[in-house]
Structure to design on (165 residues):
């Protein structure tokens, strides 16, 4: 009995390690987009990812055929939302100016990352965040407009080359 339990624990650890090796990069990128940190200096994103993966590992045996990536992504989104909306921890920090999602609020970043980067359907995003699909659509539209119409600074000067005879 003890050998079978040890064998199951070893198999579980190997399966989880293989999952992390394949999914951690994409999840870290999603977390970095959420926190609007620099890809080179992203301690909040790494902490968010670590907590999400720890929860996924704790639930590993109960997933029963569920996609572990989907579970980890839900944990990532839930933890980010809890930190940004309820505790204000993630929302108070300033986003890195080079982050593509820096001009957005934490809620807008979350919706944009789930919808555009992760490809989660509008209805699933709404259910995950506890919002109506119409609200998710409005947030997505507002965020898209903000990104498309943000100030990009002065336009570069155009110099005309003089034609020499």
């Amino acid at each position: 009995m003890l050998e079978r339990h040890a064998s199951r624990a070893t198999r579980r650890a190997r399966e989880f390690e293989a999952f992390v090796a394949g999914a951690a990069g994409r999840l870290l990128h999603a977390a970095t987009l959420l926190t609007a940190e620099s890809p080179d200096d992203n301690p909040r994103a790494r902490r968010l990812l670590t907590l999400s993966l720890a929860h996924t590992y704790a639930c590993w045996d109960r997933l029963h055929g569920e996609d572990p990536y989907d579970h980890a992504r839900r944990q990532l989104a839930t933890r980010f939302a809890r930190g940004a909306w309820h505790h204000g921890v993630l929302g108070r920090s300033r986003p890195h100016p080079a982050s593509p999602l820096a001009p957005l609020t934490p809620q807008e970043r979350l919706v944009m990352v789930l919808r555009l980067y992760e490809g989660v359907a509008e209805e699933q995003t709404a259910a995950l965040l506890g919002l109506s699909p119409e609200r998710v659509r409005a947030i997505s539209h507002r965020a898209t407009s903000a990104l498309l119409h943000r100030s990009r600074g002065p336009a570069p000067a155009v110099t005309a080359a003089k034609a020499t005879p």
The chain has a mean pLDDT of 86. The CA atoms of residues 126 and 136 lie 6 Å apart.
